[in-house]
Design brief:
The structure holds 2 protein chains of 2 kinds.
Chain A lengths: L31 E10 L2 E11 L4 E5 L6 H7 L10 E9 L2 E2 L6 H7 E4 L10 H11 L5 H14 L3 H4 L12 H13 L5 E5 L7 H14 L4 E5 L3 H7 L2 E6 L2 E7 H6 L4 H7 L5
Parallel strand pairs in A: 3-8, 3-9, 6-7, 7-8
Antiparallel strand pairs in A: 1-2, 1-4, 4-5, 9-10
Helix pairs in contact in A: 3-4, 3-6, 4-6, 6-7
Chain B lengths: L4 H34 L2 H32 L3 H36 L9 H21 L2 H31 L4 H33 L4 H4 L1
Classes of the chains: A alpha/beta, B mainly alpha.
Chain lengths: 277, 220
């Protein structure tokens, strides 16, 4: 494992899963540094030389029209695009000081960088087993330890009180909003550093949406959250920084307040004010 | 085909109503000038009544702004425009109030022993009138250069105020029989000076709409 803390002048203590855990050391270091990132689906260039620094413990929103590359970019951050045939990546992405496209254990990467998808996708098993799945994969077998992880994760996902008396119930039997929070708990159970959310509330009702948003704001105290959203009001409500994507480029990236009050780029202004044509 | 047609129509309605409020106010200021020069009590009374029209316009525009914010969630320039209009109409309404205040003193002057209109007052009113007209125009045209000129014009009005005030003080000493009339003029020029200040406020909010910088012009 690359422990070149000299890159940023730090030495790193290691956490439970073997990766740096002391976030105080990294307050000044970006969580992700993206350098000249391009991505191709075959001959089609979906991302064009993206450069971006993503700070720690903030919510970063990615906005843009359909097909602009925001979900593609999100999925480069935990190499979910590797699963797509014909994908080719150029450039580098550093998770703190680790180049995630070098020789790295992708499973461990996805433990550090968890993901929640647009459609809630709990496994067809009990709520308990859904949340315990990740820790079990990583070798945790002791029941008391798993119980503690499941309870902590469901509490962090703000759903413990609703499901604590039916942990053995099939996760598919609860509402969409509850399923999505179970999926978030599942991601939290392996103690990630980053949570990627790809339109996590598109399929949910307004009340569930607001619960997920409140949850994201609570979670950013401990995690870095990146969220792709078509809902610009959501981006302006909860994110600290916003990146506007258009046809594979990042047109503008900055503090959310600046983006929505006084964007620098005309295209950003046109998009966020809804002036097409 | 441009999207958000309904929203754009509402913004245009807002601009149109703001323009109408500005035009009515300009008319009131012209009438104030005329009433003051001619000591026309009837005209002064009309101006006082017309203040209600401006108040109604202010309330109507306020409702439109709140409706736009609630229903359309404006951002960026649209948000700056809507929130700034809410502040600007308050200044326009205060200018109209001062037209009424001056008119009250015109009525008193008309009933007192006449004295010559102090030197500088017509020019002071003209300067202030120009500031009000230009500030409304610069909002409609989104003209940042005009904003800066308006802010500088305030110094001219302030200079007139000081000059006329000193002359009035002198006149009060020399002609104590007309002390009341001179005091009325003193208060009138104070209101004119405040009207110019309100124009500057409007110009500063207009600068915020155009540039997005809330502090640059207001701190200066």
């Amino acid at each position: 494992m690359n422990t070149n803390g000299a890159l940023y002048g730090y030495a790193y203590p290691l956490g439970h899963y073997g990766y740096p855990k002391n976030k105080d050391w990294h307050k000044e270091m970006p969580k992700f540094t993206v350098k000249d990132l391009s991505l191709y689906y075959g001959d089609f260039k979906a991302l064009n030389k993206i450069n971006m620094e993503i700070p720690t413990n903030e919510i970063i929103a990615f906005i843009g029209p359909s097909g602009c590359g925001k979900s593609t970019f999100l999925k480069t951050l935990n190499r979910m695009n590797d699963l797509v045939e014909g994908v080719r990546v150029e450039g580098n992405i550093f998770l703190e000081d680790t180049n995630i496209y070098s020789d790295i254990d992708v499973i461990k990467l996805r433990q550090r960088v968890g993901m929640v998808f647009q459609q809630p996708n709990p496994f067809p098993m009990s709520i308990y087993d859904n949340v315990a799945y990740g820790p079990r994969i990583h070798g945790i077998k002791k029941k008391t330890q798993l119980d503690e992880i499941v309870e902590r994760s469901l509490k962090q996902a703000a759903i413990w009180e609703e499901v604590k008396d039916r942990l053995k119930k099939n996760a598919l039997g609860v509402s969409g909003g509850q399923q999505q929070r179970i999926c978030i708990a599942r991601a939290l159970a392996v103690e990630p550093e980053v949570i990627l959310m790809d339109e996590p509330t598109s399929a949910l009702d307004p009340v569930s949406t607001l619960k997920i948003e409140d949850l994201a704001v609570e979670l950013k105290e401990k995690y870095t959250i990146l969220i792709v959203t078509h809902n610009m009001q959501q981006a302006s409500r909860i994110s600290d920084k916003t990146a506007f994507f258009l046809t594979g480029d990042v047109v503008e990236y900055g503090n959310t307040e600046d983006i929505f009050n006084n964007p620098r780029e005309k295209k950003t202004e046109e998009y966020i004010t809804g002036r097409f044509g | 085909m441009t999207t958000r047609k309904a929203f754009i129509a509402e913004l245009n309605e807002l601009t149109s109503k703001f323009k109408k409020m500005g035009e009515k106010l300009e008319e009131m200021i012209r009438q104030v000038y005329q009433a003051l020069m001619e000591k026309d009590e009837n005209l002064a009374r009309n101006i006082i009544q017309d203040d209600d029209i401006i108040d109604d316009m202010e309330r109507e525009i306020e409702k439109i702004c709140i409706r736009i914010v609630a229903r359309q969630q404006p951002v960026a320039t649209d948000l700056r425009r809507v929130t700034s209009v809410m502040r600007m109409i308050s200044d326009l309404e205060r200018i109209a109030d001062h037209c009424g205040d001056i008119s009250e003193y015109i009525i008193e002057l008309a009933q007192e022993k006449p004295i010559p209109t102090p030197k500088g007052i017509p020019e002071m009113i003209e300067c202030m009138q120009s500031m009000v007209s230009n500030t409304i125009e610069s909002f409609l045209d989104e003209n940042i250069d005009e904003v800066e000129r308006i802010i500088k014009s305030d110094d001219i009005v302030d200079d007139y105020f000081e000059q006329i005030k000193n002359e009035l003080c002198l006149s009060m000493k020399e002609n104590p029989d007309s002390m009341k009339a001179y005091m009325d003029y003193l208060l009138i020029i104070k209101y004119i000076e405040r009207m110019a200040d309100h124009s500057v406020n409007i110009a500063e909010w207009n600068a915020f709409v155009i540039t997005g910088d809330l502090e640059q012009y207001m701190n200066n």
